[in-house]
Each structure stands twice: as C-alpha cells, then as structure tokens.
Amino acid sequence: MENMKEIKAHMKSVQDIQKITNAMYLIASAKMRRAKESLERTRPYFSASQAEKKRVFRTADEVNSRYFYPENFGIPLNGTYACLVITADKGLAGAYNHNVFKAAEKMVAEHPDTKLFVVGECGREYFSMHKIPIVKSFLYTAQNPTMRSARKISAELLELYNTDQVDKIFIIYTDIKNSMNEQVVSTRLLPFHRGQFFNEGEKPVDEPFEFYPSVEVVLENMVAGYLAGFIYSALIDSFCIVSGDSDSANRNAEKILSELKVEYNRNRQAAITQEITEITSGAKAQKLKRMKRLREEEQSE
Prior knowledge:
The chain is an alpha/beta fold.
C-alpha cells in the first residue's frame, strides 16, 4: 500500500506540472502566432534585400568591401569572433538549450578568442554557472521576439565589426525545419562570400546599373538590414521551437501519467488479489479447524 501512496503522490506532482506547462503553451501559442504573422509581413523586404545584393554582385563583380571576403579568398580572417547565442528563458524546452550550449562551447574550445553575446535567461545562467565569460547579455525576453530588439542587437554587433574589435560575427540558434525536425545552426553572418548570393555555376553579368555615390556605400547600407533580418528570423525560429517544446512537455506528462496509472492499477489489483487470497486462506483454515474439532469431539464420545 505504501508503494501505491508513492505512485499517487507522483501522479499528483506530474498533474501539477502539467497545469503549468499547459498554461505556458497556451500563452506561447498566441505569442507565436503573432510573431509568425510579423515575420511573414517583414519577409518580403528581406527577400528583396537578398535579391538586390545578388544583383549588385551580378553587376559589379569587383566590389571591395570590408563585409565581404576578397575575391580569391586567399586572406585568412581568423582574429576575434563575436558569437550571438540564442537560448530560451525557461528550462522546459527538451534538449533545445543543451544543444545550443554544446555548439557554443565547441566554438569557444576551437577558437578561444570568441566573445559571447547571449539572448535568453537559460543562457545567462548556464554560462555564469560554468564560469564561461560573456561580453553582454541582451535583456530582451526570448519569449517576445521583435524587429526592434533584433535591430538593436545587430547594431551593437555591427559597431564592433566596423570598429575592428571583432573580425567575424557568428550566430548560434535552433532552426525549425518542420513541426517534427529542428537543428542547431552555427553560421557566420559577417563577412560573407560572394558565392552565398549565387546559384551553382552562375556568373556575374553586365547590367545597366549605376550606384550612387558608390557601390560600396550602397552595400554598407544594405548590410545593416540584412543582419537585423537574419537575427530576427533566428529569434522567431527559436521561439517557435520553444513553444513547440512546451507542447511536447504536455505530451510527455500525459505519457508519464498513463504509465503511472497502469502501474497504480497493477499494484491495486495485486493488493486486491492478495486480500482475496488471504481471506480465502483464512476461511479454508477456519474450515479445517472446525472439521478437526468435530473429529476430535466424535472420537471423545
């Protein structure tokens, strides 16, 4: 019976947690829907920006800009890295945070001269607990991604890059492929290769475009929007996955409850069977005792 009491207590604790995760999922679902709608409204702008960069390279194949690798890729760009790490605000997100932390630790191990910039309370706590220094923790909640916060983050990172305090900018986040597939992505934001804007085998062509005041200035103005757009998209992807993992927590709680109910019913049935066996054994013993007494009485007569 003591085991049954423990199972009932376990079931009660799981039900309490399930109430919390269910409320979190309902709130997150509404935010996620608004965030996706906002991303869909801004996506045409960033797609057009990507297309214009490609057009610039198709037109001017000898562009010299600090945002791009040289044409021959012969100059190694090691130096100092800036890495933006996007995590969740809460730990109820399955392996999401753990996988992001592993990717960040791998980058720091391979390139010690890496400056970490963190979004999300889990990231702040994890790196602080493991004594991994971070340059800045952006105090924007991961549960409410906005284009405004993405612009502020990109502006700070771009300022470091423009003032030669960092040589490369990376981002580590979780990309949502579909409802059943997610993948941690560690990618370089700056500088980028020309090949990022061309399909395989595609080459620059002559087009009648004139850039004012220069093609370099045009690119410089486009990069800020590109960086903000990429960060915003990464924030949205990460937030959607965390919201989905909240639903996974609900399903896991249901599974645990189902298993506990089966175990509880099994133990309850075993207890009932044991009681019936004890009663039957007792009745049989009493019957044998009476029969023995009757025989003794008959023999005494």
